[in-house]
Amino acid sequence: MHTATQERLVRPARNIYGSLRLPGDKSISHRYGMLAAFAQGVSRFTNFSTGADCASTLACMEALGAKINRTGNQAIEITGVAGRVTPASHPLDCGNSGSTMRMISGLLAPQQGRFTLIGDASLSRRPMERIRKPLEAMGARLTLTDGHAPIQIEGAPLKAIDYTPSVSSAQVKTCILLAGLQTAGTTTVREAVRTRDHSELALRAFGATVERTMDSVSIAGPQPLHAIDATVPGDISSAAFFLCAAALFPGSNLVFDELGLNPTRAALLDVLTALGARIAVLNLEEKHAELVGTVQITAPVDGIGSTTISGPVAAQLIDELPVLAAIGPYTRGGIRIRDARELRVKESDRIALVAKNLRAMGAEVEEFEDGLDVPGGQTLHGATIHSGGDHRIAMAFSVAALRAEGETLIQGADSAAISFPEFFDLLDLVAER
């Protein structure tokens, strides 16, 4: 079980200034790691995510027969199993990673053998029924424990389906596509709300044919995958914390090199622009169908304004909502979040934790079942923050602490390592004190 105990003291900053190159995108690293391990041949990646979650994906794939060779700092070489995994004699430990557990279930369901997936205490509370339904519709045999992990999979040949998930989720979509990749016929996933499309782009990069319409993705199976060489773009979800920090300081100037700018992930830039931050995108190019560029952000002299985040944008920004809520008190007009009920079943109940920690810092905040109202124009003071072992809460309140009066103690700061081990070092690098 992951116990987050390490404390970190965050002092107020005078400004945010400098340039950053961020570790590889977590979502893309998960997918490249999993597909490379499943493909034929040897794939090589640079700037691969350093987060514990992606390490969980690699460890699971290694247990299934892939060879993982770390050739340098953030550089990795993966020899794939050419479409046929070797069942492990022990349970596959997904750690804290919902991405690993949900996506690998789709990969394993059509394979021969018996597989057990386990996770830490936090992951074992997260809903897995949403992958069981489509996989069982394809003919898979899955056993859950009260709708949660541990998951037992009895591999078997599957049949193609046309499926509309009840919850818009890139992980559920990927799970179905990875099963469809190995299944005769055409498998289609329909989306009411378009989710991040890293899986479709990664599958194509590895040589698969994937068809996309406005509201659906289809894959015809079976198809083989072939190794690639790639540099993983910088993680925009990690950049979110620094973008929001820079937005708080009139006179700030922050530049990100080689940042992933996938349109299904870049909604944060639109929100920050709506708040009044000035954002410039330079040197935009495409690498393995992923957009990569240099991003510069400066904050308006009179502070950032106000915004409401709801509907499809709330789903697209689900990982960035905690930090947006955390900077809400420092805006002129506040931040209102709705249609984000999914936040309650992440690594923690993020709505409840954001409200609790904002109040600890002296902020007024109103909590709703599916979101928050955070009024602007508030002054916050340093406090003791409880991360709940949740990496995004620890990082979001480290950003809020930069504009507070007095020091803030982040409890469970080591949880940041789940996605972003370098976070505090980089924050110290760009925060002028």
Mean pLDDT, rounded to whole units?
95
**Could you please say which CATH topology of the largest domain applies here?**
UDP-n-acetylglucosamine1-carboxyvinyl-transferase, Chain
Under CATH at level 1, the class of the largest domain stands as Alpha Beta
The number of helical elements comes to 13
Account of the 3D structure:
The protein is an alpha/beta fold. The protein has 2 domains: 7-24 and 233-432, Enolpyruvate transferase domain (UDP-n-acetylglucosamine1-carboxyvinyl-transferase, Chain, Alpha-beta prism), CATH 3.65.10.10; 26-230, UDP-n-acetylglucosamine1-carboxyvinyl-transferase, Chain. The protein is 29% helix and 27% strand. It has a 5-stranded mixed beta sheet. Helix 3 (98-108) links the parallel strand 6 and strand 7 (114-118). Helix 1 (26-38) packs parallel to helix 2 and helix 2 runs parallel beside helix 3 (98-108). The longest helix is centred in the N-terminal third of the chain and has 13 residues, at 26-38. It starts with 6 loop residues before the first strand and ends with a strand.
